[in-house]
Give the backbone structure.
Amino acid sequence: MSDALVIAGKSYESRLLVGTGKYKDFAETRAAIDASGTEIVTVAIRRTNIGQNANEPSLLDYLPPAEFTYLPNTAGCYSADDAIRTLRLARELLDDHRLVKLEVLGDPNTLYPNVTETIAAAKVLVKEGFEVMVYTSDDPIIARQLEEIGCVAVMPLASLIGSGMGILNPWNLQIIIESAKIPVLVDAGVGCASDAAIAMELGCAGVLMNTAIAAARDPVLMAGAMKKAVEAGRESFLAGRMAKKLYSASPSSPTTGMIG
Amino acid sequence: MSDALVIAGKSYESRLLVGTGKYKDFAETRAAIDASGTEIVTVAIRRTNIGQNANEPSLLDYLPPAEFTYLPNTAGCYSADDAIRTLRLARELLDDHRLVKLEVLGDPNTLYPNVTETIAAAKVLVKEGFEVMVYTSDDPIIARQLEEIGCVAVMPLASLIGSGMGILNPWNLQIIIESAKIPVLVDAGVGCASDAAIAMELGCAGVLMNTAIAAARDPVLMAGAMKKAVEAGRESFLAGRMAKKLYSASPSSPTTGMIG
Amino acid sequence: MSDALVIAGKSYESRLLVGTGKYKDFAETRAAIDASGTEIVTVAIRRTNIGQNANEPSLLDYLPPAEFTYLPNTAGCYSADDAIRTLRLARELLDDHRLVKLEVLGDPNTLYPNVTETIAAAKVLVKEGFEVMVYTSDDPIIARQLEEIGCVAVMPLASLIGSGMGILNPWNLQIIIESAKIPVLVDAGVGCASDAAIAMELGCAGVLMNTAIAAARDPVLMAGAMKKAVEAGRESFLAGRMAKKLYSASPSSPTTGMIG
Amino acid sequence: MSDALVIAGKSYESRLLVGTGKYKDFAETRAAIDASGTEIVTVAIRRTNIGQNANEPSLLDYLPPAEFTYLPNTAGCYSADDAIRTLRLARELLDDHRLVKLEVLGDPNTLYPNVTETIAAAKVLVKEGFEVMVYTSDDPIIARQLEEIGCVAVMPLASLIGSGMGILNPWNLQIIIESAKIPVLVDAGVGCASDAAIAMELGCAGVLMNTAIAAARDPVLMAGAMKKAVEAGRESFLAGRMAKKLYSASPSSPTTGMIG
Amino acid sequence: MKSGMQILVNGKAMQLPSEAMTVMALVEHMQLTGKRIAVERNGDIVPRSQFHAVQLQGNDKLEIVGAVGGG
Amino acid sequence: MKSGMQILVNGKAMQLPSEAMTVMALVEHMQLTGKRIAVERNGDIVPRSQFHAVQLQGNDKLEIVGAVGGG
Amino acid sequence: MKSGMQILVNGKAMQLPSEAMTVMALVEHMQLTGKRIAVERNGDIVPRSQFHAVQLQGNDKLEIVGAVGGG
Amino acid sequence: MKSGMQILVNGKAMQLPSEAMTVMALVEHMQLTGKRIAVERNGDIVPRSQFHAVQLQGNDKLEIVGAVGGG
């Protein structure tokens, strides 16, 4: 059964997107990325350290852009303008790369998205030809507005970035998923494998995570767990779960033919 | 990493146990069992139909005892005596097979276990040399008593048999798991893949299910989802999840080097 | 203990605000309002029926503005402009009444707020001297922006209007409450008394509801239940609840002096 | 509307039962008991301190048995025998008082009930003419057995004694309540006012608590909150809550007559 | 040729008997006198105190509203 | 007068042709030969190895079971 | 040779001055007169009405209890 | 009087040896040749293809960035 994730016209086998921050070193980053089976990795754009050793290895040496789809983000940006400038630099940096993750934060304590600034940035970026995967709140109306603007994917939070609290409001995600025509990915908040499975069972097209893997005691083992959890959740969604019923539990064994 | 499930001294690679009831036909039963990767299948003991066609195929033709570890159960028994007689027959039926699933029900509407009758049956069966995997409530004291009697595994319910309600009281399961020295498996109530993953993340040694697979729209696909979910949950448990923190969300990207 | 709710400089004894829609008749409306002990009632602004019987009683005959603080709302408005015009009419209608409930909806199916239009309307209304109590999502950044604009109270939803689903995301409400300097009231979604108590225990300044009372089998009895629930939740919040601890349960009776 | 709680043929106005342990002093105990409006107070039976000052005041001086219905408990008993002897002493101590709270614990760490010992004790006590209100787990079959033995009320835990975790498994409580013909009271685990309201909304006949009041920052204020919460929850149950519906939220204001 | 004029009230066309009518006259004409209402004319509020002074024009767009039960 | 005897098999009365029948004979009579079954006679297990040796008596109560799908 | 006798009260050994003591006398001896207490002697309740009549024996095991705060 | 000029690179003032320097020259000067970087000059992107052509001016504000690990 082919069940590809299609974003901006490109197909991906894996529905798990992974961030590259917070790992012990580049070797662990690569090992975790490999274990996760991801095809799309997020990267941040930062100033080069003036006068740094020109020969020290960089992330790109460990994760060659030829092997992965890069998803440059705007982590740390608190205004539409900063986010736009950051992604223009990313586009130039990655040879006219257009697929980007837009996030505009509202508050350094919660890292909750600033949806009004996010909308302002999305309008400009879409006009400039970017393929915008947008991090947002679980507000269904904002999600719809971002889709109307022309974003290629909406990525509501499950819970606060780096919190690992899991999916706090599955009902809002459900509303977003049922009305969206573009892929809906859960971004931020996933803390363990079951969180990822739940997101997929809700009907999400994919899950993006970083801390849940990087901050696990064993990041590489957790990366593999997440790969299986996303696949399990997707297949569970496609297989059509049994109906829930508190009462009249029904036995799995025949009720006749009992010895007497 | 070898991480076998050991029950009564025997090792199993798979931590998923699957029931063989409620499938469309034996072919679907076999396909689902294969997709689940299970090594232990539960079967019920029932009166042979007098005068039935002696040549019609039986479950054992599709699931040869040579390929699987059979776990005969006492489904449908409402007294210790019926359960004991049923398992003595099972032992003879399966050539002095000693590994059995004891369940004594308290009520046909809820199928909730009758723990007092269960304890009475367990005492007799253990004395007779049975290796008893016992279905019980999530009462930590009863679980401890069943362990003291000599059961080889305690299998508390997640929720009512056939309900698919998932894990209603993870706290009790946690108490049972933390104090038990024998394997604790969740039996009954799992409805979808994430339920199985949650059970394993709680530290369960395994999960036993039937309806969640057999009553899915696509049982074979769901069986595969459950295989991955149990593995994902187990690895997530072993990998050591990140700490949850509602507040002070921490970014996955560097907070320095922002463009200005 | 005086523990008044202060909104726009005016004190209220009751922290329960009640809507006046959906009742069987005006008599039931009045009976429920009385049972609730509320001092603030919301009303909608609608076109007068041309050629209606000039003598038929109106809501105001049953709830004299002299006895209650009216809170005209913009229910049914999907744009800032409609909301602004509606509240200007309300202000004139109620003799330069300035305390209003602003709500701008984003979608007739979910009635989820359109926060961008809400912000646009709030800016105009505050400038015009309205005291704006604003219905919004549980987005902490939007809540902060509405406070900065000069609204006198932010009223995030617990769940969708008329859904009775209760508080779906207490964590977001907690974030809003902890950072807001103006009263935070839960508006929409409360379905039963415990929902109201939970909202108050989170630290909400008050609760606004309509359907939970009007759609109960016995609205007047439920109105009384809500009065007690809001008071109970408030006092529970002020009394400082015991710490939660799953483990090492501590007995309420002495552990010494047991007979032996 | 008269809505008395009837236990063993005696009517009570209050559905809140309160323990007398863990307070700062007897004065606070009395103040909290008064604020709670309870008519039934639990007490423990303990050895008199040999050679203690014969004149120091006792609990009974502050809570005269003439004013309250005493409910002597067996807190701290881990065997049927200890519980039976303790209650025989209580009966003599309180002048042939027959209404008692039976609890037999299974484990000093969790204080979880030992239901097999509890059943054994209940059989003896009922035969001896005691009116047994029995603390038990949330096992519906055990609850039914205790009712069949002749207990006058079953009191399942919401969560562990002294934990304040609230109602961990409302579904089991629901099953118990729907099948029981005797009053079902939640005993243990309530931590705040909303917990008590939820228990009553489930259809409980009453709630018994101690730590939630005694361990609050302000026990007397919390006692009043609990009084209101139990009443609110009861009225909310009797009033018949609105139906929950995630979707098609329905506005509380008319959808016609909008200005245009 | 017919006298009077047509205006739009609450979204419905209304034929008025005369060309010289105030908001006050309209309110009486509509039997709303004494009712608690508010009036918007062509997008602007007409204060009650001005009902007697404001002359209606042909094609005026009026909104006449009251308070009803709502949440 | 009729020969044979009556026994109870799986809760149903069964008339046997002869008074001298072993469990083995009954199994053949019921066409269950070769099937994986287990037999309880009057509450006690009859090991398969003893089918040929155990003589049935009138009014014996037998349970003959097999394994079926169950969870 | 010493007179009196030893009994066990609430788990503690107690030396009594005399060999002829009733429960009543013990209660007075322990300054518990007038207190609301209950007494168990060797596993059986001693009704308050019988305090004066029940003679203590050496090695009697007594439990003397009262009501205290508890939940 | 001193030659060269001062510009702002990544928020830090930098004194350049000459007044005639291209972005390319700056990149070499900073030992970033061959590194995957992107440059913004006074708010506008400088395409890598234009590094050799773009002359720096005094007080130019440059941002020179690369990709790092992030989520």
